[in-house]
Amino acid sequence: MTSPTLSGSPASAGAGTGDAELRDSLDPLATFPSRFVPSAEVVAYLDGNSLGRPLKVTKDRFGSFIEQQWGSRLIRSWDEEWFELPLTLGDRLGALTLGAAAGQTVVADSTTVMLYKLIRAAVDARPDRTEIVLDDDNFPTDRFIIEGIARERGLTVRYITVDKRYGVTTDQVSETVSDATALLVVSHVAYRSGYLADMQEITAAAHSAGALVLWDLCHSAGVIPTELDAWGVDLAVGCTYKYLNGGPGSPAFGYVASRLQTEIEQPIWGWMGAADVFGMRVEYQPAPGMRRFISGTPPVVGMLAMQDMLDLIDEAGMDAIRAKSIELTEAVLSFFDEKLAPLGVELASPRDSAFRGSHVTIRHESFKAVNEVLWENGVIPDFRNPDGLRIGLSPLSTTFSELRVGLEAIVEAMTHG
Prior knowledge:
There is one protein chain. This protein folds into 2 domains: about 15-55 and about 315-415, Aspartate Aminotransferase, domain 1 (Alpha-Beta Complex); about 80-310, Type I PLP-dependent aspartate aminotransferase-like (Major domain) (Aspartate Aminotransferase, domain 2), CATH 3.40.640.10. Helices cover about 35% and strands about 10% of the residues. It is built from 12 helices and 13 strands. Strand 3 (about 130-135), helix 6 (about 140-155) and strand 4 form a beta-alpha-beta unit. The radius of gyration is 22 Å and the shape is globular. Residues about 5-15 have low confidence and may be disordered.
């Protein structure tokens, strides 16, 4: 792949928002936004990369769950479905969105806990190595957890310094990892810039030094097609409340390649991860397969909503979702060139869609105040300190017309707000 650029030729006029209604009418995914719960208070929701909208059908799923599985079947539902749900749901999520064969994905704890479990397991599996490598603009949770684990295990954290408008490159990884590196941790899509890292090449570069790699998929799961198995990925963690629309606090997923499942040992031993869950054994013996990466009782209620979103993803197809994501972000770039750049706004995301996820970040010193005005008027982007505004596009719930309303509101707030 060539290097990403921020400068260069402006986006084509045809990719803009001026023909939003026409583009909506021609959109192959045009029927999908109507399946989400509308908000009477919001006229443009541009923050699907933080919290996805709920689906209308999920109301029925919750009702059925309360009346039947929980209300009628009660504890018997553990035997009938709930006990296996973290694994069956993980397998479906892996097959539809991750390129992962069955038996390698589990839906379990929060993102923070899943990151801790898999990072600790990975570094403990490389006891002769002394370093964890990550970039200095990774999400705070990733950095905090790694610093904590390094303190626990007496390891060194080596940071890759990145341009915050981009993210980690293969060359940077090759220059940094060594025979001292136990684990490399990279976000597939950078939370700040939306930069899309080259998963296949970076994984290969880390493996050439004998290091394991963990990918944070929080900003790509459900919107960027991946091939974890084919690309030789070792470990991955991702949340489910963004593009998987699981709702606030819905549990994260973890992926562990089958070749590593008996090599690494997760540190939080709980009864649900034991080989004989109801044996009440004196000593802990991990279960075979991905069950060993479960700790306590799974958050079953938190796994309900994402099942409906997986149905939608299955119907639409990841390739079509990615295609619309690119069209939406291209529309943002076209609008930026025409109306935001003349106002002194800076682009802080790659122009090349091959290096861009499903959000675009723009910068201006006024954006903290602008964001407050926008939120008061029902336009919801996402502000990131110190001066960034993220325009997050969720392809199955976002229309081109909605995007146009939101972008024009930014101009209005800057010029008259």
